[in-house]
Write a structure and sequence with these properties.
It is built from ten helices and 13 strands. It has 341 residues and is of the alpha+beta class. It has two domains: 147 residues, PurM-like, N-terminal domain (60s Ribosomal Protein L30, Chain: A); 180 residues, Alpha-Beta Complex (Phosphoribosyl-aminoimidazole Synthetase, Chain A, domain 2), CATH 3.90.650.
């Protein structure tokens, strides 16, 4: 009799788990030109138009803590997370569907607060809350959001298009969301240790990073610039899992290596202040933090100046290299760090 084995997900990680899930993809259909493996699936409508679809899931106690995450901010954040996937394909989000499982401890007013945030985000991103499902939950609030968008087929940007010597770029600044989370967790611990019934967290001076955690914004502005400047990056991905993890996805799928220059990675002064207070390495905030929802993209060298002439909120942080097994971080101090790829 064959002995049963149990392999934990932690042993292989979610990236390897997704690779296993890909083998259970159902029947192939010619209309689906891209399935699992990018920010959104691609369904071809005709020779020029495509539908983009993606989803996100948020579970209480895992992805959010209502001790410090107001429900209207949570509603806004889940829409941001969803539409960011469509922007990462160079598309335009059109509609949102939300599925929500609600425990009895939540009131009608609380759920309305959540949807107030969803509504605000949909208005900001010019999309419609078109439906979803509602059910009961025994203990935890669980939310799934699906986004549907459109794109011109020839304008879609995938993760796998980076070329040798392409510049690796990011929008905005990185690590702010994790810095905000660290501050919120610190204030929660202070409240728990003092057992005060009414507690006002001290967030003065931390407004920027707290906002990056609670109410992040998707980079709709960047996608608009690409359209107006008639620019098309060779690869594109939104930074939801952290710079290193998401950059690895581009490298592996494009078949090239990576060299990052860590002093060039944009990190705000507010994020640096938090890392200093916590006595932590601020580079790790940027490399591993996630939930910044900035855009990581690759450009041909000749297109970098063209983008700079139309958009100034980005930085060149590295290049794609010939050795596909290489992921090197240049510290700028005569040292380099090799990362498994």
């Amino acid at each position: 009799m064959k002995e049963k084995t149990f392999q934990s997900i932690q042993e292989i990680g979610f990236t390897s788990l997704i690779d296993k899930i890909k083998t259970y993809g159902g029947n192939r259909r010619k209309e689906i030109s891209k399935g699992i493996g990018d920010d959104a699936s691609v369904q071809l409508v005709d020779e020029t138009e495509a539908v983009l679809t993606s989803s996100e899931i948020f579970l209480e106690g895992v992805h959010f803590d209502l001790t410090y995450h107001p429900l209207h901010h949570l509603g806004y954040k889940i829409v941001t997370a969803a539409v960011s996937d469509v922007y990462a394909m160079n598309g335009e989000p059109v509609q949102i569907l939300t599925d929500i499982a609600i425990p009895n401890k939540y009131s009608v007013e609380m759920i309305e607060q959540f949807y107030r945030g969803v509504d605000a985000a949909c208005k900001d991103y010019n999309c419609v809350l078109a439906g979803g499902d509602t059910t009961a939950s025994h203990q935890f609030l669980a939310i799934s959001v699906t986004v549907v968008g459109f794109a011109k087929s020839e304008k879609i940007i995938y993760r796998n298009g980076a070329g040798k010597d392409d510049a690796i770029c990011v929008t905005g600044d990185l690590g702010g969301a994790l810095a905000g989370l660290r501050i919120l967790m610190r204030e929660k611990e202070y409240w728990k240790s003092n057992e005060e019934q009414y507690f006002q967290p001290d967030l003065q001076g931390y407004e920027y990073v707290v906002k990056r955690q609670l109410v992040p914004a998707a980079r709709m502005d960047f996608i608009k610039v690409l359209k107006s400047a008639n620019l098309k990056p060779t690869a594109l991905i939104d930074l939801s899992q952290g710079l290193l993890a998401d950059c690895k996805q581009v490298a592996v799928q494009s078949g090239w290596g990576v060299e990052l220059f860590s002093p060039a990675v944009p990190i705000s002064m507010e994020t640096r202040k938090v890392a200093d207070e916590m006595k932590e390495d601020v580079d790790k905030y940027a490399f591993y933090g996630g939930e910044d929802f900035e855009m990581l993209f690759t450009l041909k060298k000749e297109d970098v100046e063209r983008l700079a002439a139309n958009f100034d909120d980005f930085a060149v942080i590295g290049r794609m290299t010939e050795n596909k097994s290489e992921f090197r971080i240049n510290t700028g101090e005569g040292e380099s760090i090799e990362i498994d790829i």
